[in-house]
Amino acid sequence: MNINDFRFDGRKKFKVRNFETKQEGDFKDRTEAEDLRDDHIMDLQGLQDRLYAEGKEGVLIIFQAMDAAGKDGSVKYVMSGINPAGVVVHNFKVPSAEELSHDYLWRAMIAAPQRGMITIFNRSYYEDVLIVKVHDFHKRVPLPERVLTGDIFKNRYEQIKNYEKHLHENGFRIIKIFLKISKNEQKKRFLQRIDNPEKNWKFSDGDIVERKFWDKYMAAYEEAINATSTPECPWYVVPADRKWFARALIAEIVVSTLESIDPKYPDVSEERKKRLAEFREMLIKEE
């Protein structure tokens, strides 16, 4: 499949109403998609190992979505085969008192990836131009009047773009993924969580509350994606009604990004090779 069909880098606009969430691509069936996903997972193992060993670039993968769109499952399946030592996952929930006492980017900055590492944000600083915008939560934070203007979110889009530009220019790649689920598919998944006792724990009262703001969320996502899409830090909008398709597409996006980095194992100097040969000889001679 062509991942550029789902890529938004500022040259085209993302329109919620025109986006088909039930896409299946060119796959003959689900099995073919899952086979491709598994192949990419195998590719990812080698790429991540070299990324970790080289230690030059870091990767930040951001997942944003409405509830039940499949963020957790995507992380679980796509990243299942890689070395846990080289991956960190951060789940961003309601800000703590300490986090609220700093600027909204602070908690993301201290969780940013290290070189050689893959860091996954399950939700992110984009919540501050999504749920915060939908519910006007920014008005509940002790911000100065000069900040609380009609331009607050326009300013935040610029701040986010500048932050991501800063990361990119300092050796970090950013993969931004919006899992776009339809309202009807979300309803089906909510009902599954209610009807299946083993999934009851996944459902919260807040899920129903947030669903009532669906249209406002779609408008917020559309605006945020269009305002923060750049060639260096594009958004990928992934159709999420078919989990198998979404996971195959995400795997291809991640592998494609790592292939563009083309990480390599560090070169070993002749002096080091000689030293290693001496160690080898010592080990062989051990009784």
Question: What would CATH call the architecture?
Answer: 3-Layer(aba) Sandwich
Main sheet: which strands, in order across?
Answer: 1-6-5-2-4-3
What percentage of amino acids are in beta strands?
5-15%
**What count of structural domains?**
1
Instruction: Provide mean pLDDT, rounded.
Output: 94
Identify the CATH homologous superfamily: P-loop containing nucleotide triphosphate hydrolases
- In DSSP terms (H or I, runs of 4 or more residues), the helix count works out at 11
String of helices and strands? EHEHEHHEHHEHHHEHH
The major beta sheet can be summarized as: 6 strands, mixed
In short:
The protein has 287 residues and is of the alpha/beta class. The protein is 47% helix and 12% strand. It has a single domain, classed as Rossmann fold, CATH 3.40.50.
Describe this structure in words.
This protein is of the alpha/beta class. The chain has a single domain (3-285), classed as Rossmann fold, CATH 3.40.50.300. It is 47% helix and 12% strand. The protein contains eleven helices and six strands. It has helices at residues 30-54, 71-78, 97-100, 106-109, 131-135, 152-169, 183-195, 205-211, 214-228, 243-261, 270-285; strands spanning 7-8, 58-65, 87-91, 118-122, 172-180, 235-239. The chain has a six-stranded mixed beta sheet with strand order 1-6-5-2-4-3, with helices on both faces. The longest helix has 25 residues, at 30-54. The model has no long low-confidence stretch (mean pLDDT 94).
